[in-house]
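Checklist before submission:
- one chain only
- standard amino acids only
- sequence pasted in full

Submission:
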Amino acid sequence: MKWTWYLFKNIYCFIYVYILIPIFLVGCANIVAPSGGDKDISPPKIISANPPSKSINFNGKKIILVFDEYFKLKKNNINLSPICEPPPKINIKGKTIEINI
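Returned file contents:
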């Protein structure tokens, strides 16, 4: 009688641990893509610029702009006026844009 009780006890433990608990744990998971938050409609704002805004008679070879948020730009997505020949090299690092004239 002890042997059968021990056998049934182990079978119930096996069913409980290896079958029922994983079924409940997998059933609780709700796999969904993250929403990503609200749409960003405000443009980035310039925090600092070198040379400062409205500078005149600038003869340097580098312009540095620091913004308040991270962003990515695609190629040919920046317009400079007046048009420079040869076109400037633009480097983007985090919140900073460096324009080498």
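Reviewer check: The mean pLDDT is 79.
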